[in-house]
Design a protein that fits this description.
- With about 120 residues, the protein is α+β, with helices and mostly antiparallel strands.
- It contains 3 helices and 6 strands; from the N terminus they run ααββαββββ.
- Strands 2-1-6-5-4-3 form a 6-stranded mixed beta sheet.
Amino acid sequence: MPSREAIEGLISLVEQSRFIDGLEQFYAEDATTTENMGEPRRGREQLIANERGVMAAFPTIHSRCVRPIFVEGDRAVIRWQFEFVPASGPVRRMDELAYQLWRDDRIVEERFFYDPAQMRG
């Protein structure tokens, strides 16, 4: 079961746009993430590489956790709202749910649920 401190620590880093720090501190080395029903990305290093790509496409990203957070055993659900600001072009807003499996204080599996149409420019 994840500790409340770990979940709040992850939320704090994401809300500060410290996404790489969040991955390094709160994701297991063998963690996987899946966007909707897509193919999973495997391993923390791949997750970090993907995040760097998103950050390169959107130099400014604003993040907010919408409470409450749901925790039951080793599972947590966090609702996020993001504002992606590209160097040029329209701002994109996304509302998503992150469904997480934690092992102690590290995420081992995460699936994101959102409407992909939100990211169309």
